[in-house]
Amino acid sequence: MRQQFRQAGLALVLLMAPVVGASAAELTPETAKAWDCYLQTVQDRAKARVEGRQPFLWLDEDASRRQRVRQGETLVWHPGADGTQEVPNGLIHDWAGDLFISGATIQDLFNVLHNYGRYGDYYRPVVRQAKYLGRDEENDRYQMVWMKKALFVTAALEGEYETTYVPLNEKRWYSVSRATRIEEIRNYGHFGEQKLAPDTGSGFLWRMYSTSRFEERDGGVYVEIEVVALSRDIPPGLRWLVTPYVAKLSRNSVATSLEQTRDAVVQATTETASSGLASGR
User: Fold this and answer.
1) Most buried one in 18, 85, 183, 277, CB count within 10 A?
2) What is the rounded radius of gyration, in angstroms, for the C-alpha atoms of the chain?
3) Number of separate helices (H) and strands (E) present in the chain
4) Is residue 182 classed exposed, middle or buried when 0-12, 13-18 and 19+ CB atoms within 10 A define those classes?
């Protein structure tokens, strides 16, 4: 069963890069060090949940949260002190979300996440291309190209990712995903299209990491994700305009990707049921 599900990708993690202006910005050693330090706190939090030192799902810490999610609400929250944290020459964005897919199983969920050829349908218009690159002993490797327009900026990026999926039992899984390469694409889809070297360009997104937890119970599947991303900082002259939008964009991105996943699972299970009925006639 574990081998069957290890092909899942970052389908739930589509966009966490803020709009920060189009001037050049390169990742500095100080910024990268701050990212590594912050990431350790994220990993420690996730470890506490999978080891049982905290509830497996954040929503189980409060019965009202679980009830809201069971009723169809998508909850988005920030696990740290704030959703956006300043570091030297950069910003760390840390948001999480919970959602319930009624009537689905973990198998139904992963059947959708395995279907890379339909990512452009499931996660439109952000995801433009996706393909599976192979698997090593522990990780799946895959590639995605996505584009997002917001305010006065269009960001197009190509990234390679790796994901490890781990079963705790048949009904409970967790995953760890990270971007291994991110390159900005200038003039995407136009004359003069150019991929820039990693850690250079406009600094829309330098690093991405996520943890996800999945639990099948209550007649469906709970999906909980935490997405952490690193971008350049906001130029002082734009902070008054951009800072509120950064948080809104990050929150909406998590909610939208969760809801698109739910829609895709519902559609796929409906299609499968209809096909089964037709073939049984």
Assistant:
1) 18
2) 19
3) 6, 10
4) buried
Tell me how crowded residue 34 is: count the other CB atoms within 10 A of its CB.
19
What letter does residue 61 receive in the DSSP assignment?
A: G
Instruction: Classify the C-alpha dihedral 198-139-13-156 as positive or negative.
Output: positive
Token pair listed for 201: 């360009």
Residue 35's φ and ψ, nearest 5 degrees, are: -60, -45
pTM, rounded to two decimals? 0.86
Count of domains for the chain: 1
Six-digit token string for 121: 């349908």
> Buried b / exposed e across 6-33, counting CB within 10 Å, b at 16+?
bbbbbbbbbbbbbbbbeeebebeeebbe
Q: What is the pLDDT of residues 222-233, one digit of tens each?
A: 999 999 999 988
Expressed as residue numbers, the domain containing 135 is 2-279
Beta carbons of 144 and 159 less than 8 angstroms apart? yes
Q: What is the pLDDT of residues 175-205, one digit of tens each?
A: 999 999 999 999 888 899 999 999 998 888 9
With contact defined as beta carbons under 8 Å apart, do 220 and 101 qualify? Answer: yes
Distance CA 155, CA 189 (A): 12
